[in-house]
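We give the chain.
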Amino acid sequence: MGRKRSGKRQHLYLTVACLILVLAAGCAPVWTQAPECPACPACPEVPVCPECPQSGRLMRVEGMLSRGNFEGAMKESQELFASSPKAAPGDEALMDMGLISAHYANPK
């Protein structure tokens, strides 16, 4: 009964699926390789925020932590926290101390 379907809906579904795929691929994040030494104290390219002169020290802490220097990172975080316990860089230093203490590779 009835006539044979022409299959136009299949083309519509395929077109919609391809459009969704293209849109999803366009919104995907593009991964770029990070610089080799982003927080090395010897590198002059370490970004420093003009509003917060302590941001270079925070970057050094993160660099030490990424290289596995847990004692140096803890010491630097404690010094930074002691210099400003209730100001902006002090709270991040306190958070870094917690991350250093809880890090799985930290032997202490």
